[in-house]
Amino acid sequence: MSIIPEGLRYTESHEWVEIGDDGIVTIGITDHAQELLGDLVYVEPPEVGTETEAGEACGVVESVKAASDVMSPVTGEVVEANEDLGDTPELVNNDCYADGWLCKIKMSKPEELDDLMDAAAYTEFAASEDH
Predict the structure, then answer these.
(1) Could you say which of 5, 40, 58, 63 is the most buried, measured as most Cβ atoms within 10 Å of its Cβ?
(2) Cα separation of 93 and 99, whole Å?
(3) Rounded Cα–Cα distance for residues 85 and 70 (Å)
(4) What is the pTM of this model?
């Protein structure tokens, strides 16, 4: 069973969003996604300064099974990237909600958060995909 923390927002493409007080959100891939991918061998977060659009690719994760784009849940500018993932992509497998975060984005359209799922809705969504 995947870990799906309360208090975060989630996308149908399996990214999580932690909302900060300053209009900056931290994003990563969910526990469900990393379980499906298996052991990650490469993670490419977006570069600082990159402009992201909600629903467009902003990074890449590769496992022994597959490569997958990470989709930006919000529109904005990347203000920080988790550089540790370059040398230790397994941080995502070990703790995707703490050390395994991907990047931080300063939102330009905070209303996009309203389109994301809460933990209960994502739990149902992820369970429906497993069948």
Answers:
(1) 58
(2) 10
(3) 14
(4) 0.95
In tens, the pLDDT along 36-80 reads 999 999 999 999 999 999 999 999 999 999 999 999 999 999 999
Looking only at the bridges linking them, the beta strands covering 57-63 and 40-44 are antiparallel
Rounded to whole angstroms, the Cα distance separating 32 from 93 reads 10
Which secondary structure element, helix H or strand E, spans residue 16, and what is its range?
A: strand 15-19
Domain ranges within the chain, ordered by starting residue: 9-122
Assigned CATH for 9-122: 2.40.50.100
Tokens of 2: 């995947």
The DSSP element (H or E) to which 124 belongs, if any, is helix 119-129
Q: CA–CA distance from 50 to each of 7, 14, 81 (Å)?
A: 26, 21, 10
CA distance 36 to 9: 19
**Torsion angle, CA of 67/108/4/7, rounded to 10 degrees?**
170
